[in-house]
Amino acid sequence: MSKTGKLQKRLMVLLTSLVMAVPVAGSPYAAQADAGAFLKSLEGGWRGIGVAKLPGRESEERISCRVTNDYDSDAHELSINGTCATTQAKSTINGKLNYSGNDVTGALMGSFDGSRMTKSTGKVNGNELVVSANFVDNATGALWRSRQVVRKTGEGFSADFFTFENAKGEFVKSGSIQFSSK
Fold first, then answer.
1. pTM recorded for the entire structure
2. Residue 20 or residue 142, greater confidence
3. Which residues share a beta bridge with 36?
4. H or E, element range at 25
5. pLDDT of 156-171, one tens digit each?
6. Pick from 15, 9, 23, 16: which is nearest to 122 by CA?
7. Domains, the chain, with CATH or none
8. Cα 31 from chain centroid?
9. In contact, 177 and 48? CB cutoff 8 Å
């Protein structure tokens, strides 16, 4: 795989974690009583700026995103579309979150660069949504996990994302992005 291809794959791993944070990020509204109200409050356009440590890199890199979220009350879902980029690569973001009560699930990304999401779960608790996901590399069978914690902040939100490090046996923070309306 070329150097550019490796950088794009690393960005996709990070952005997949981010995608799960983006849909739940960014409400200017007060705390919601359930996941549906929480996700509905995220409808609209958002831009985010922050830092992220790409897998295999020593230091953090600046990252920026632009997303548009569409809420469908009949389908009980929030659709996410947009782009995120570092100075090294750019990636398209597409996903959906579904809810029942305070529980959130969804196929945020069905597949990317030879990997696919195998499970996604989350829960809304007041002004916070925590989403966890499992992925598998189709070629190697390697598994990896991510977690996102999104907190509403004033006119936007803060999205912190984590990747599980097997060697340490714990989730390690891999980035943070502050979102505001476009």
1. 0.75
2. 142
3. none
4. none
5. 888 898 989 989 999 9
6. 23
7. 3-181 (2.40.128.20)
8. 20
9. yes
